[in-house]
Specification:
Layout: H1 2-6, H2 10-29, H3 44-51, H4 54-73, H5 76-83, H6 96-131, H7 141-152, E1 160-167, H8 170-177, H9 179-197, E2 203-206, E3 211-217, H10 223-235, E4 246-252, H11 261-282
Antiparallel strand pairs: 1-3, 1-4, 2-3
Helix pairs in contact: 2-4, 3-4, 3-6, 4-6, 8-9, 9-10
């Protein structure tokens, strides 16, 4: 439990690492506990990456790997036998221990590398899954929140454009055609957003059920063209005889110089809701223009 708390604090972790290195080295060289003290070193690669940190644990494991090789396989070994009485205990049964222990430690070291590598892989995979939407593969709301936090830490780019996108009539589509069809519609919209915007920005997020936010540096004022391209892309993506459409709104940072990022998002969303309201006045659930008697 104590070591577990050190993982998140660099200085205590380094301090613990140095203490373990010093204490284990001393007891190993002096042959303490009738020579069994050195066997504790075998546990270092297996335990230290888990309870201290991966980097510090790996550094400690490499240190002891070099330590073991040095005291048994270099010219220093005869010197240690001659000047440190306790060290001779490793040779009481001949040189078999000096041959076997480094191999034992090396096995422990490489097993630890494998297990820690597996642990890091699944941890990173889990972390990645927590940042991306499972339905569309787009960055999710958690990633979106982290992105906004990073923007808040630096001056706002005056060429930043915030785009809010919302699918039209998702609730009606779910009620009439089923939620599976609604999910298919969201996936198609996500694919269209990726196709249109990925060459301009990587910062597009699914922030809610049918809500998307895009952030891009637009120095050429092409945002209107891209929105039209998105709508053209969706116009050929019918599902169950329903034409997919989206409401869009955006704001350029330079057009609202005194606004922070959250205020820009609010303005973009208001523009999007205005676009959605106008659409619903003139189109039915299937995306067709209402006739006069439908009003």
């Amino acid at each position: 439990i104590l070591f577990g708390k050190f993982k998140m604090r660099t200085f205590p972790g380094v301090l613990v690492t140095l203490c373990i290195g010093a204490v284990f080295s001393y007891y190993a060289l002096s042959g303490q506990n009738e020579g069994f003290a050195i066997l504790w070193i075998v546990l270092v690669p297996l335990i230290s990456p888990l309870f201290i940190s991966f980097k510090l644990g790996l550094a400690l494991s490499i240190y002891f790997l070099l330590f073991v090789i040095t005291i048994f396989y270099t010219p220093l070994a005869p010197y240690l036998r001659e000047h440190i009485d306790g060290f001779n205990i490793y040779y009481t049964d001949g040189v078999e221990f000096s041959r076997r222990f480094p191999a034992l430690y090396a096995a422990s070291f490489f097993i630890s590398l494998f297990l820690t590598g597996q642990r890091l892989y699944y941890f990173n995979k889990s972390e990645e899954n927590s940042l991306f939407d499972h339905l569309t593969g787009l960055k999710n709301r958690r990633f979106y929140s982290d992105y906004l936090s990073s923007i808040e830490k630096s001056p706002l780019n005056r060429d930043l454009t915030v785009i809010s996108i919302d699918m039209n009539n998702l609730k009606e589509l779910n009620d009439e055609k089923g939620h599976d069809v609604g999910d298919q519609a969201i996936i198609k919209i996500s694919l269209a957003i990726t196709k249109v915007f990925e060459s301009y920005t990587k910062e597009y997020f699914r922030t809610g059920g049918d809500e998307f936010q895009i952030f891009m540096v637009d120095k050429t004022s092409k945002v209107d063209e891209m929105i039209n391209e998105l709508r053209d892309e969706l116009s050929s993506a019918e599902i169950k005889d329903v034409t997919l459409t989206v409401a869009c709104g955006y704001i350029r940072s330079r057009d609202s110089m005194n606004s922070n990022i959250h205020e820009l998002i609010s303005i973009a969303e208001n523009n999007m809701y205005r676009d959605k309201s106008q659409y619903k006045e003139t189109h039915d659930i299937n995306g067709r223009v209402r006739r006069y008697r439908d009003f």
